[in-house]
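Researcher: We're teaching a course module on how sequence relates to structure. For the next exercise, students receive a sequence and then see the predicted structure as tokens, so they can try to spot secondary structure elements on their own. Here is the exercise chain.
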Amino acid sequence: VSKMMEMVGLNPAYMNRYPNQFSGGQRQRIGLGRALIMNPKLVIADEAISALDVSIQAQVVNLMKDIQKETNVAYLFIAHDLSVVQYMSDRIMVMYLGKIVEVADSKALYDEPLHPYTKALLSAIPVADIHHKKKRQVLEGEVPSPIHKPSGCAFHNRCPYCMDICKKEDPVLRYHGADGHMTACHLYDGSEVKA
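Model: And here is the predicted structure for the students to work with:
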């Protein structure tokens, strides 16, 4: 336990403290230590930093990256902060209403997104440079109920490229290109399907 506390950046002298005696960032480090103490090959981090302020988020994310280099642990990192997702991820999976709509290496996804939903998400990332004019893709329409999804593609009622087939058939996740980039969109139905 002492070694793990040191690994996650906590003083082992704090071992007998009560949970309410730790800050939010320290509690997140404790959670990470608890997940890593059995030397897992995979850690699922679901919104692991969402409740932390930005400076603490950066510390925890950098700690996770350092631990990954040291232990070779894999993370399934689930988050809504797309800048953090890009920093943390080698490969990214984008989901809409619980369905995978795009999978790609981080660089490929951010450089050339394929699915209209991914394009809209990435266009919403704030840019610090006030002189950089980035065209934002604002999605129209309402998000459908996840319980009563529309027929066909769940994204069709908000998609600027919606075709008749989109309203009838749910697209299959298919490879597009040689780099393992995949998308579930009828715009790319000519791509080769791989098992």
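Model: If you want an answer key for the exercise: Confidence is low (pLDDT under 50) at residues 191-195. Strands lie at 42-46, 74-78, 91-96, 99-105, 174-175, 182-183.
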